[in-house]
Amino acid sequence: MVKSHLTIAQAIGMTLFVFAGSAQLASLPLIAANAPLWVLFATAFCVNLRFVIFSATWRLYFGHLPL
Questions:
Q1: What is the Cα–Cα distance from 28 to 53, expressed in whole angstroms?
Q2: 39, 45, 42, 3: which is closest to 20 by C-alpha?
Q3: The pTM is what?
């Protein structure tokens, strides 16, 4: 992250607030290109949306198990 011209404080903040590593990797080139904030949020949303889809699929296989 620091190699992408983020300060150490920004890198630590991104690590604390962006939980998915894939969203971090997808957003770094956008930050370097000075993309608008809404593009960053949309990218992170789309990258994380796949986990919701995966979870919905696995529900068919594991939904009968007790919590």
A1: 24
A2: 45
A3: 0.63
